[in-house]
Design a protein that fits this description.
Blueprint (H helix, E strand, L loop, with lengths): L2 H38 L4 H24 L8 H25 L5 H7 L2 H12 L10 H22 L4 E2 L18 H28 L3 H23 L11 H29 L1 H5 L2 H14 L5 E2 H62 L1
Antiparallel strand pairs: 1-2
Organism: Vigna radiata var. radiata
Pfam family, one: EamA
Subcellular location: Membrane
């Protein structure tokens, strides 16, 4: 194997989490428009969340059984409670509020609100000592400023519109129907509450993923519990049996895409990345989703853009870059800790060997006497 191939392999391994999270944001960006199209057709958001998790669990279950059936840990009551709250904050509660907010807002607005998740996750991770921040070093300061800039960018995109940029003529797709967004405040509150719940989910991901090493099986558990929780909530809120019927191709495509791709593949990759890089790393890629949704909304779906959105995107990109640069110090910190631990272990082994060699010599001297 040549040196170039080795170098390319090392670069790929180093940036694999980054590439996977970028790919995930691309997949999630399409979901915003599919969901709004389904809601405009009359699909109940709580029913949609239930179907999504049912399909997600079914899609991942065969892979989990084949690859991880020998790795399943013992399901204790403590583990069951942890999985219950992980499903509550990560799937049923979060998504029910988030997709319900699309009734009253737009995909671009909801995508911009998710930018606050990285800031909230960073604050919670620091408070729980899951994130290392050394403000005496430039990389530690970069984490703080990157988080603040991302939050400022999200607020600009949310609160400031500015001049309108006309939509692109001849956009190939038009998914929006006769959907009227008539309660912006209610939608904003639902979206904000969803972001808080989402932040808690990223924190729980990093904690539970270390205990439950079978990540495919963990994805199945999350989908199954999330489906049960959402079904109970949907039955309480929606009393019409007709609401559970899928009446259009758009709704069917949305349910299968959200379940198999977003509920299965995306959750599995997020668990793997959270275990490798921590919860803040996973959440700080959400701003890229905002940019991708804005691009799709303009070029593909004919939505209008505003100068405030473009200004917010600039802040988001700068903040994301600073966060990524600051996160590189975590790897250096962990490598220093591991190297220090290895040195201590080698010293202990050396002392044990010396002591073992001294014992026979002492016994020999005593026998001679």
């Amino acid at each position: 194997m040549s040196n170039n191939e080795v170098a390319s392999g090392m670069i790929y391994v180093k940036f694999r989490p980054h590439l996977l999270m970028l790919f995930i944001q691309m997949l999630l960006s399409f979901l915003y428009f599919l969901v709004e199209a389904s809601l405009s057709k009359g699909m109940n958001p709580h029913v949609f969340v239930t179907y999504r998790h049912v399909i997600g669990g079914i899609a991942v279950l065969p892979f989990a059984y084949v690859r991880e059936r020998k790795l399943w840990p013992k399901l204790t009551m403590t583990m069951f409670i942890e999985l219950f709250f992980l499903s509550l904050f990560g799937t049923s509660l979060t998504l029910n509020m988030f997709f319900a907010s699309l009734k009253y807002t737009t995909p671009s607005f909801d995508a911009s609100m998710t930018n606050t998740i990285s800031s909230l996750t960073f604050i919670l991770a620091v408070a729980l000592r899951l994130e290392v921040v050394d403000v005496k070093k430039p990389r530690g300061v970069a984490k703080v400023f990157g988080t603040l800039l991302s939050l400022i960018g999200a607020l600009i995109m949310t609160l400031y519109k500015g001049h309108t940029i006309q939509s692109l003529r001849g956009a190939p797709f038009h998914v929006r129907g006769n959907f009227v967004h008539n309660n912006w405040i209610k939608g904003s509150l639902l979206s904000g509450a969803s972001c808080i719940s989402w932040s808690l989910w990223f924190i729980l991901q990093a904690v539970i993923a270390k205990k439950y090493q079978a990540q495919l099986s963990l994805t199945v558990w999350i989908n199954c519990m999330g489906a049960a929780q959402s079904a109970i909530f949907a039955v309480i809120v929606e009393h019409r049996p007709r609401a559970w019927l899928i009446t259009s191709t758009v709704e069917l495509c949305c349910v299968f895409y959200a379940g198999a791709i977003c509920g299965g593949f995306v959750i599995f990759i997020q668990f793997w990345t959270a275990e490798q890089k921590g919860p803040v790393f996973v959440s700080m890629f959400n701003p890229l989703g905002t940019i991708l949704v804005a691009i799709l909304a303009y070029f593909l779906f004919g939505e209008q853009l505003h100068t405030g959105s473009l200004l917010g995107v600039v802040f988001v990109i700068i903040g994301l870059y600073l966060l990524l640069w600051g996160k590189e110090s975590d790897r250096d910190y962990n490598s220093q800790e591991s190297s220090a631990t290895d040195v201590e272990q080698r010293e202990c082994k050396t002392q044990i060997k010396i002591s073992e060699q001294e014992v026979p010599q002492r016994n020999l001297s005593q026998d001679t006497n």
